[in-house]
């Protein structure tokens, strides 16, 4: 499949967790520090991080289905954190509320992949660049400031009050930037996210990120079709798009 030309694209939306920032490594590091402070070395920090994220999809499905009012990622993550502590035989009541809140806010300070800030800056020279994430606006603002991400604008799932892959999550983002879906492209490391974006009319760019798979989507097999672009980094994607300008 011949990729669409860069001239046909106005806006690049970015999945953030896993695509722009290393959620797994960042959360595992924060969990490891938390476990050391509380003398729980028997718990594997990476397994805990995966279990924490592994609860995510089931936790927000009632919101997608209209069975629960919208709740921010901070709320969902805190509920799942307490469930994970119990899963690993660490009673949540053992920890102060402030300790749990500090750990939960680790999602606001995730570390970027080495190419993320530079790649977004390069892409920003030609396109409007913005996150399209399940994170809420304050989380994404804090993360951008922490990681040096040069977004043109930041709006979170709290704006559309919907979670991906609900179509409103993609279409509301296009509406806010006054761009037709076919002139927007989602950049993501997750095929299920790109599948949903493409079904809404957006173009797609897949970026390979090792160890970025979402444990909540363990059964996803991926679409057989090729994406409009495929790259090994955001800087490589910038180079590919420059060639089709």
TrEMBL record:
Superkingdom of this protein's organism: Bacteria
NCBIfam families: HAD-SF-IA-v2, HAD_type_II
Top-level taxonomy: Bacteria, Pseudomonadati, Pseudomonadota, Betaproteobacteria, Burkholderiales
Gene3D superfamilies: 1.10.150.750, HAD superfamily/HAD-like
UniProt xrefs under Pfam families: Hydrolase (PF00702)
Keyword Hydrolase part of the UniProt annotation: yes
The protein, known as: Haloacid dehalogenase, type II
Record's keyword terms, sorted: Hydrolase
SUPFAM superfamilies on file: HAD-like
Keyword Ribonucleoprotein in record: no
